[in-house]
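User: Hi! I'm working on a homework problem where we have to compare a predicted structure to a textbook description. Could you give me the structure for the chain below?
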Amino acid sequence: MKSLDHYWYSQNPVAWFFWPLSQLFCFISFIRRQLYHHGVLKTIAFDVPVVIVGNISVGGSGKTPLLIALVDYLKQQGKKPGVVSRGYGGTVAGVKQLDDNDSVKNVGDEPSMIFQRCACPVVVGRDRAAAVAYLLANNDCDIVLSDDGLQHYSLQRQFEIVVIDAQRQHGNGFCLPAGPLREKVSRLKSVDMVVYNGVPDDEVAAKNSCFYQLKFEQIINVLSGEKKALHCLKNISVLAIAGIGFPQRFFDCLTKEGLSIQQQAYSDHYDFVENDVKAWGGKCVLMTEKDAVKCRHHLLKKAEKSNEYNDVWYLPVTAMMSDNMRNDIEQKLL
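Assistant: Happy to help. Predicted structure tokens:
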């Protein structure tokens, strides 16, 4: 069975078959936004700036590394940021602030990763306005970043950042279900900043656009926390694991570094089970940081009985913002 990417990122009969539904989806999205914009539907405002880091497409644009970089940057500027997230894949009912004892299964993989990397308050909840209210009532924050939520219009926002994958762009240009878009590309005209994940192919666009590149240097052992250079995995067979929106980006990154890999892709937010981890015994495994937060408890159980699971690593990445992007943030946000 072919993946949705095959249909969403190309012109093909299946995409055109669903095109009428795509037009209906776009129309409903537009009307819904207008109802909020003109006050027909209620929006909730807060006394601190709310920054949305989202996208107009479904998954895989790479917004979470950018959000982490923005939190770090704001802290360097003396700000006290907090983060809200839907907590996709988690089981939380209502709102919940993350603490060190929370399980990934309860609060979701991306919030867990953000909490571990940023050392700032993180609150999850389907109702993002309620999550922001809880965050501000229980923490000393002077700016809020929302992980995704561009289409969550009940939450008033002062700044919208849309992340676009420089490689895949907008796919076939269709809205769901014929393509990957949640809103038409024209929505980009109304946001405060469009940021590319990767350098745009067009030389002029690259010079004038805001973008970031993912930087990586070390891999970290999932169990022990040991760190070593990525090139240490050259000349050995590596099982590469990726349960993210666009797994091929991770695999391409490794092959460009000269690693010999066996690719194992999973769906975004994949919930790893014991049998998945069992198959990794005796192998050198390298995964994304997002996958590592979900696999660690399984590996700990396996490691109690066998030392065959000590060679499992993850690759943390850091979003390095372009000069244009830093300048725009300083001028428009700070």
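For your comparison, note the following. The mean pLDDT is 93. Residues 250 and 256 are 10 Å apart (CA to CA). Good luck with the assignment!
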